[in-house]
Amino acid sequence: MKLLRIWAVLLALSLMIVEVWRSWGAGRELVFVIDDQIMGAMLIASAYLLKQQTLRRRAFFSAAWAVNVGMLYGSFFGKVVNPADAEPGNWDVNILTGLIGLAFVSAIIGMIASIILPQQGSRYEQTG
Predict the structure, then answer these.
(1) Residue 81 vs residues 43, 59, 87, 91, 111: alpha-carbon distances, Å
(2) Residue 119 carries which DSSP code?
(3) 72 touches 36 (CB < 8 A)
(4) What is the DSSP letter of 64?
(5) Residue 31, CA distances (Å) to 67, 80, 104 in order
(6) How many other C-beta atoms lie within 10 A of the C-beta of residue 19?
(7) Is-above-0.90 flag for pTM?
(8) Residue 121: which region, alpha, beta or left (left: phi > 0; alpha: psi -120 to 50)?
(9) Which of 19, 33, 43, 79 has the fewest CB atoms below 10 angstroms from its CB?
């Protein structure tokens, strides 16, 4: 689970940094920048909290991965289906689409792994 927590933080930071880089000075609406910051913050917070596994913390970690899958789905397929309407900001639309596709696949794998990996320790606590 430690590797998955590290993976979550790396994905989160990459989403947060690339989104700011992509949008800086490009005139993009703030709401389309903030969503990546929220996704990243959820992954980072849940990965940190999972240092001590409880049922709730593990559920939060899986939910953070699921939020990323859901948000990246629309972003990726929106660019694949209609690249002419994509707002790539400071990036080439093809490179951006490829990076978002990698992040999407990564989030799917992370979400599945966060659900199916065995628990650490003997039992989950019901609080926390």
Answers:
(1) 28, 32, 13, 18, 24
(2) P
(3) no
(4) H
(5) 16, 21, 20
(6) 20
(7) no
(8) left
(9) 33
